[in-house]
Amino acid sequence: MLFDGTCFHMTADDIAQFPTLEIVLITPVIKLELHPQHYLMPSRSDPTKYCLAVNGEGGTAEKISLGSAFTQAFHIAVNQVKQYVGFAPASTCPKINL
After folding, report:
1. Rounded distance, CA 53 to CA 65, Å?
2. pLDDT in tens, 9-58
3. Burial of 73 (0-12, 13-18, 19+ CB in 10 A)
4. Strand, coil or helix: what is 58?
5. Cα-trace Rg, the chain
6. How far is CA 85 from CA 1, 55, 62, in A?
7. How far apart are CA 70 and CA 85, in angstroms?
């Protein structure tokens, strides 16, 4: 039922039981890992409930919408001149308020 948009009450231990997703981009082959704390997001209406934050298309999930779940997990650099996109894991450093 998680895949039909239903949200569920989950603890940190529950979320840790979900697998890490591997996202493979081709040409060149790049493998990125998306951990459950990034693809299971708190519900806006009830932060004790978690919802699936990625959407697949079809039974084989050949197409998937990653959206904010993906962009929160990585620093993404786009170079339009050289026509490439780079990915690095999001920093775990604390934010500095200036």
Report:
1. 9
2. 999 999 999 999 888 887 788 888 889 988 898 888 898 899 888 766 65
3. buried
4. coil
5. 15
6. 34, 22, 20
7. 14
